[in-house]
Amino acid sequence: MNPKNTSASSGRVHVHKRQSFDRKHLSVDVYTLACERTAYILDNHDRVQVMFSGGKDSTAVINVALEVAHSDPRFERHLPLRTIFFDEEAIPQETADYVSRMFARPDVAGEWYCLPVQHRNACSRTSPYWWPWAPEDEDKWCRPLPDNAITHLPGFQVWPQEARMSIPDMAGLLAPPPHTIASLMGIRAQESITRLRAVTKKAVDNYIIQATGKTAQGNLYKAYPVYDWKHEDIWAAPKKFGWDYNKAYDLMEMAGVGVSHQRCSPAFGEEPLQKIHTYAQCFPDVWAKMSERVPGIGAAHRYALTELYAYKDRPEKPAGMSWPDFITHYLRKFRPKEAASVADRIQKEIASHYRRTTNPIVYKAIHPMTGLNWHFLLTIAMRGDFKGRKQAGARCAGKDPAKLWQDYTAEVAAIRDAGTAHEYGYSRPWPTDPASLVVDIVQKKR
User: How many CA atoms lie within 13 A of 399 on its CB side?
Assistant: First the structure.
């Protein structure tokens, strides 16, 4: 829900719990907390920079940072506020227009990077990466190169393609020592279990984390000042405080895209791919070029929501084939390097499961302790999940344990009765009394 039709209750941004595994009720609103965190960051780092995507979350971050920077003379050393935008090329023109407006502000020192950084291409298993603004693909660029684009960065290698780094890996190039530098980022715990865990690691007040990656040198920190904001907060704040925002969200709102699914980033990755049709609907100009930009995009547009890409449906396993063999069949569709990476991820998931329990992995029902099933592993084998956004254990969160055990033991019994236990890659005798599995686990916890 966008600012023009959203209001903040009682004149304040909504109050929410801190999003961590040890959630606490706080008698203060999230805007105030974000300002307090940002002030701490500005006080305790030599320099700060905002990683600005033009999206709704980084909109909150930059506006809070500017408010705090102007609030006290001791913060004036951070003005104009260094703001970094990585232009991902296949983005709506509304995003570029919004970034231009923000960079035109006198209190913002904008850096507009157009570099061929490595991104995931989930449209193709044989071409699993793409690079915005890649010089070899200039005839396919989705937009003209902006006039103020920064196209070279010391330490960033353009050739060969395999040497091109991702944004996290190249982050250190933007933050050379000896200064301590904090990158303010719009990471919110509500977005995914991966982001929730990012703010529950050992850190300073659980929102400042030392950056890692190929170029990190120990002086760079990632800071998440709005990590506990909800979708309602993200859109109530622009309404209450009169912030400018990316008008691409208005188009997605009118197209019926839910608030939690609105994205302005390129739709070529694993998760954005399921919303690729919204680009064709909402942003026809950029879509006309996107439709030819990366290998496999045509098929992805037609079949992204089918079993071909492991969304909604999954392909049916041939009768008599084991689940490990079925998984291997899909791994072979990747290039050898990526196939090995995905296979290693799957092996670790299985090993983690059997470290916690001796219960077999079944197809549909998720295991109540580990969240694992062959349906999940098949999804990983088909999509790759190279960014590690899918977490088996997260699928148990918020679910009734009794119902999970009921579904799980029922499927174990059904497999036993069907005589297909040999297809599940289970090295022990198949349980004859599935109900005893629950008792055994309860006893082990005592």
Answer: 19
Could you tell me if residue 429 is inside a domain?
yes
How many other β-carbons are positioned within 10 Å of the β-carbon of residue 340?
A: 12
Amino acid at 115: L
**CATH classification of the domain holding 52:** 3.40.50.620
Do 107 and 70 form a contact (C-beta atoms < 8 A)? Answer: yes
CA-CA distance, 76 to 81, in Å (whole number)?
A: 9
- DSSP count for the chain of H helices, then E strands: 15, 8
- Looking at the structure, tell me whether residues 234 and 123 fall in a common domain: yes
Q: Which of 234, 247, 269 is nearest to 95 (CA)?
A: 247
Are 131 and 118 in contact, with CB atoms under 8 Å apart?
A: yes
- 223 secondary structure, DSSP code: E
Nearest residue to 367 (alpha-carbon basis) of 388, 390, 349: 349
Lowest average pLDDT, out of 69-83, 198-212, 312-326, 349-363, goes to 198-212
Binning the chain into helix, strand and coil, the percentages to the nearest 5 are 45, 10, 45
* pLDDT > 90 in the chain, percent: 68
Rounded alpha-carbon distances, angstroms, from residue 413 to 362, 376, 405, 417, 419: 11, 20, 12, 6, 10
Looking at residue 386, what is its pLDDT?
76
Q: Does one domain contain both 332 and 225?
A: no
Write the CB contacts of 326 (distance below 8 Å, at least 6 apart in sequence): 317, 318, 378
Q: In a 3-state reduction of DSSP, which class is residue 189? A: helix
Query: Are 133 and 90 a contacting pair, CB within 8 Å?
Result: no
Q: What is the DSSP string of 93-113?
A: HHHHHHHHHHHTSTTEEEEEE
**What DSSP letter does each residue of 305-316 carry, written as one string?**
TSGGGTSS--PP
Q: Assess whether 99 and 196 both reside in one domain.
A: yes
Whole-model pTM: value is 0.80
Q: Based on the domain organization, do 327 and 179 belong to the same domain?
A: no
Angle between helices 374-383 and 336-356 (to 10 degrees): 160
- Token pair recorded at residue 105: 């502000």
Q: Decide if 112 is inside a domain.
A: yes
| Sequence-separated (6 or more) residues with CB below 8 Å from residue 420 | none
At 431, list the tokens: 């349980």
Tens digits of per-residue pLDDT, 121-142?
Answer: 988 888 989 999 999 999 999 9
Token code pair at residue 209: 């984390």
Average pLDDT over residues 251-261: 87
The helix or strand, by DSSP H or E, that contains position 163, with its residue range, turns out to be none
Cα 207-231-28 angle, rounded to 5 deg: 55
* Tokens at 282, concatenated: 């909402």
Whole-angstrom distance between the N-terminal and C-terminal Cα of the chain? 47
- What residues make up the domain containing 35? 3-241
In a domain, 217, yes or no: yes
